[in-house]
Amino acid sequence: MQGKYTFSIIKPDAVRANHIGSILVMIEKAGFSITAMSMLQLTQIVAAHFYAVHADRPFYKDLCSFIASGPIVAMVLEKDNAVVDLRKLMGATNPTEAAEGTIRKAFATSIDYNAIHGSDSDQTAASEISFFFPSRKLLVKQPAII
Ligand code: ATP
Ligand code: MG
Q1: Which of the residues are catalytic?
Q2: Mind listing the pLDDT tens digit for each residue in 38-75?
Q3: Is residue 11 part of a domain?
Q4: Parent domain of 48
Q5: What is the C-alpha separation between 128 and 9, in angstroms, rounded?
């Protein structure tokens, strides 16, 4: 049984191009509920940590600079099979290979500027969610006051 939550970022290229609303429409129409959301800009240090898995790749430095280059929208998305279904909705990393109807087909302009991030496993989703939304568990579990 796959998890119900994934983590996503609308990347700086899509924010700069005013595509936040259009991307959220696609996400909601695909059956996801947005359960947490924050607009923020990453520091270089946080960017390096976020993409640490790619530290040995030749594109790592440019990737970190790009993700820290402007505001992003960080989100927790809820749906059955969330991780896999969001990756399908995002489309291939390289937009020239992305299928029709995917977010990257519509909004990515290159492999470097590809509009959206989505967690690649339930484990990654859990660590990305707790990194970006450390108080989330507390908020979800808080009992109603009235
Ligand atoms: P993301 O992690 O950003 O959601 P992804 O999971 O589709 O994207 P990854 O393999 O995790 O792809 O790579 C992270 C990012 O690094 C990609 O979004 C892309 O911008 C960049 N990248 C990946 N492979 C290459 C490559 N061969 N050349 C240049 N950039 C690349
Ligand atoms: Mg990835």
Answers
A1: 117
A2: 999 999 999 999 999 999 999 999 999 999 999 999 99
A3: yes
A4: 5-88+119-132
A5: 10
Tally of structural domains, the chain: 1
**Cα(1)–Cα(125) distance, rounded to whole angstroms?**
15
DSSP conformation class of 58: T
Q: Say how far apart CA 105 and CA 89 lie, in whole Å.
A: 10
Instruction: Tell me the sheet residues that pair with 38.
Output: 74
**Is 80 contained in some domain?**
yes
Q: Does ligand 1 lie within 6 Å of residue 104's CB atom?
A: no
Q: Classify residue 96: in a domain, yes or no.
A: no
CATH number of the domain where residue 28 is located: 3.30.70.141
pTM of the complete model? 0.94
Cβ of 112 closer than 6 Å to ligand 1, yes or no, is: yes
89, 102 Cβ separation under 8 angstroms: yes
139, part of any domain: no
pLDDT of residue 1 exceeding 70: no
SS3 per residue for 88-104: HHHCCCCHHHCCCCCHH
